[in-house]
Write a sequence for this structure.
């Protein structure tokens, strides 16, 4: 097989993921695009490992490590997104402009009231 | 001269033929690659959030098939297990827990969509050009011994990569504990809930009752 096929496919997948990260608004869709980028890297690693016939199979070992790290990343990322949603009532990355937690008095209170009200106050504050 | 030019002519004869060589593996790879790329594009462009997660399943499954075609069997099944099995389910849970709208949501894409498209197209053009130019004459030899069977992968993983493997398992454990701590309901117990309840606008009586509630299980445990 020509080496250009997997290399080009992984480059294109990476750029699709890049577009998703830059253009999406929902934080979970951003995480999905990050997964696409990581998978493009995995495909590259596997293809070059098979091409080089590495004795240590470094590419495949690193692919397994990347998959494990991606699983950890998606767990932590989703936990953070859920916490942000619980605090702010929105998982919209465009609205999360202030990096300080509890920055203004109009920011959404924590815990179980992710209604529309804190979202609107956040929007009005932003 | 004939002898010297023989390998070159042979290379020149095989190179254009091999670049579009209609072997079954290449055709399958290209077809599955097109399907994967299409599913990825739909994933990042669709306006229905749940459909994006479902198209992500198609893209990741297509990548698993690509791994199989590259004779990396173990990684293909790990891909199916972890990505299609758990990561997408986690993403769907995340979508449901953040009450993502079912159906079309008009604001799925942010305002910098065209800038993002320009950046993505520019980087795609640059990367594809560089990659094709660099690896024009390289071939993957898929014949011979299988590169990524479970036996081979297990052997190299536990013979040469044991220390990174163990470090990675510790990292996974830390990530799991961190995810549990982060996504725990605030205010049930622990300092996290108390500080946030104090910082929030909750009435102090609720905080007091929650601290009381959080203290009692500790006593019971002792």
């Amino acid at each position: 097989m020509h080496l250009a096929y997997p290399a080009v496919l992984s480059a294109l997948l990476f750029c699709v993921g890049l577009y998703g990260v830059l253009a999406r608004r929902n934080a979970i869709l951003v995480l999905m695009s990050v997964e696409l980028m990581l998978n493009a890297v995995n495909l590259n690693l596997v293809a070059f490992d098979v091409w080089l016939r590495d004795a240590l199979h470094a590419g495949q070992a690193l692919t397994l490590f990347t998959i494990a790290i991606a699983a950890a990343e998606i767990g932590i990322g989703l936990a953070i997104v859920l916490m942000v949603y619980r605090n702010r009532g929105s998982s919209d990355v465009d609205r999360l402009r202030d990096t300080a937690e509890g920055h203004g008095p109009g920011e959404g209170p924590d815990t179980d009231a992710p209604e529309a009200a804190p979202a609107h106050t956040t929007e009005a504050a932003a | 001269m004939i002898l010297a030019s023989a390998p070159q002519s042979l290379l020149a004869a095989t190179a254009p033929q091999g670049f579009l060589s209609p072997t079954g593996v290449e055709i399958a790879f290209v077809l599955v690659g097109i399907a994967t790329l299409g599913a990825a594009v739909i994933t990042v462009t669709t306006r229905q959030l749940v459909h994006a997660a479902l198209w992500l399943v198609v893209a990741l499954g297509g990548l698993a098939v690509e791994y199989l075609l590259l004779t990396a069997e173990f990684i293909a099944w790990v891909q199916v297990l972890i990505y299609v099995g758990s990561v997408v389910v986690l993403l769907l849970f995340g979508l449901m827990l953040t009450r993502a709208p079912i159906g079309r949501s008009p604001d799925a894409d942010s305002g910098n969509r065209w800038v993002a498209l320009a950046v993505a197209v520019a980087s795609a053009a640059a990367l594809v050009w560089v990659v094709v130019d660099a690896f024009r004459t390289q071939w993957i030899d898929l014949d011979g011994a299988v590169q990524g069977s479970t036996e081979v992968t297990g052997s190299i993983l536990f013979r040469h990569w044991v220390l990174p493997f163990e470090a990675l398992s510790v990292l996974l454990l830390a990530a799991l504990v961190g995810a549990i701590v982060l996504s725990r309901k605030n205010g049930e117990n622990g300092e996290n809930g108390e500080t946030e309840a104090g910082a929030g606008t909750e009435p102090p009586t609720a905080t007091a009752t929650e601290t009381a509630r959080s203290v009692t299980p500790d006593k019971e445990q002792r």
Notes: Chain A touches chain B through 75 residues (CB under 8 Å). Residues 105-126 of chain A have pLDDT under 50 and may be disordered. The radius of gyration of chain A is 20 Å. Residues 4-125 of chain A form a domain with the Helix Hairpins fold (CATH 1.10.287.3510).
